[in-house]
Amino acid sequence: MPSVSVVSRSGVSGLVRACHPLPAAAVTVLAGVLATAVGRGPAGTALVVAAVGAGQLSVGWSNDWIDAARDRAAGRVDKPLAVGELPPRSVAVAAGCALVLCVPLSLASGWLAGAAHLVGVAAGLAYNVRLKRTVLSWVPYALAFGLLPAFVVLGLPGGPRPAAWVLGAGALLGAGAHFANVLPDLDEDRAAGVLGLPQRLGRVVSGVVAAVLLTAATVVLAVGPPGPPGPAAWAALAATVPLALAAVVAPRSRLPFVAAILAAAVDVALLVGTALG
């Protein structure tokens, strides 16, 4: 029988892998970078990172908990719940605790900022529960990504409003990330009855849609600020286009979603170099 310490380490490892660590970490880090860039200060940035991190954990863990039976039927050996590495209750409790923590951490940035973030988290949970199986599957991603810069900026003293083009770019990026994320699993999703918009459109069309949306997000960030696009905007576009094309040339791999995360990093880098409103 393994020792308690070994079981504990295994459980922690399983929880880490069940939270969708790559996107969770990427979104949290990028939110922290954005908070630092707009002047939230060390304490404000820490609040943003903690709130976004808690929200990402809640959405990630609830996703694996809700999809455990489907993942098991699909033979997903990369899912700790599907292979019996973790009891479902532990993941459900972890998701609930993260959500409970997310509420005060979000509201600590102010009522309006906190509400913006909590709506985004609620959108992610709604995706897990129901919307991923409908033609509106892209809406939670668009809403959550669009509201993330609003959460960061509204928490500044005086609650300044972010520019509409910033929110629009975030929404386009989120929708593009959704299409890129589901591409490799389209066949399994269809077999399991998960018929979101990408599953209905098919792999080829969804790959093109992902590429267009990811590129459009950078275009909006490039042309949104007053004046003509500068060298940084053109550099961002030059970096984003090949990343976006990954959804077209390698739609059966995880490369499109990794490319979407890298495109998000490019967009944040461009955004922190421009005025947010």
Reconstruct the topology from this structure.
Layout: H1 4-18, H2 21-38, H3 41-66, H4 68-73, H5 88-107, H6 111-129, H7 138-154, H8 164-182, H9 186-191, H10 197-201, H11 203-223, H12 231-244, H13 246-249, H14 255-272
Helix pairs in contact: 2-3, 2-7, 2-14, 3-5, 3-6, 5-6, 6-7, 7-8, 8-11, 8-14, 11-12, 11-14, 12-14
Provide a descriptive summary of the structure in words.
This protein has helices at about 5-20, 20-40, 40-65, 70-75, 90-105, 110-130, 140-155, 165-180, 185-190, 195-200, 205-225, 230-245, 245-250, 255-270. The chain is mainly α and about 280 residues long. Helix 2 (about 20-40) packs parallel to helix 7 (about 140-155), helix 3 runs antiparallel to helix 5 and helix 11 packs antiparallel against helix 12 (about 230-245).
* Share of residues in strands: under 5%
Q: In DSSP terms, counting alpha (H) and pi (I) runs of 4 or more, how many helices?
A: 14
- How many runs of DSSP E, i.e. beta strands? 0
Rounded to the nearest angstrom, the radius of gyration is 19 Å
Any low-confidence stretches, pLDDT <50, length ≥5?
A: 1-7
N-to-C SSE series? HHHHHHHHHHHHHH
Subcellular location: Membrane
Protein name: 4-hydroxybenzoate polyprenyltransferase
Transmembrane segments: 93-126, 138-157, 163-183, 204-225, 231-250, 257-276
Keywords: Membrane, Transmembrane, Transmembrane helix
Concise synopsis of the structure shown:
Its main location: membrane. The protein contains 14 helices and no strands.
Main features:
277 residues, mainly alpha, 0% strand
